[in-house]
Amino acid sequence: MSSVKDCRQPPDIGKLRDMDLKEFKKGLVLSISVMTGYVPVAIAYAATALSTGLTPWQTIAMSLFVYTGAGQMAAVVMIGQGVSLAGITTAVFIMNLRHVIMSTVVMERMRQTPLGIRVLLSLGITDEVFALETADSSASGSSNAACFAGIALGAWGSWVLGTCLGCGISTMMPRN
Description:
The chain has ten helices and no strands. The chain is mainly alpha-helical. It is globular and about 55 Å long.
């Protein structure tokens, strides 16, 4: 019964034993391979989004809050085609159902981490983050919330950076 009570308690971030700086930095280093792939794809996403009529701020906001490369690319193409918001939302939701399964796998390995932290960390799941975290936790035998946070934050940050670069490059290019 105590585990149910613990899940209802707000997480005390100061007491998380596995959220240490060394593991977080390890996660950032692990994410470098993802970063090198995300930046050019995010630049292409930004160029596509701007070409469909989104403003640079809307394009960057989508990267900040939607964070699904395939979903964002599909969404901007559908925006350009005039698809309804309901249609776009449904399509992106269906495309990303796999993230529910991936989040369940990763978060189950972090049982000792408070529920609120696990829910927050689950927002960082992408195919690449899942692959890195799974490979790292298989080698160590368990998942570490700090390492996962480093991987996820590095990947997300590089996606947003690539989007910003793409907006900057695209707005400087001459238009026909």
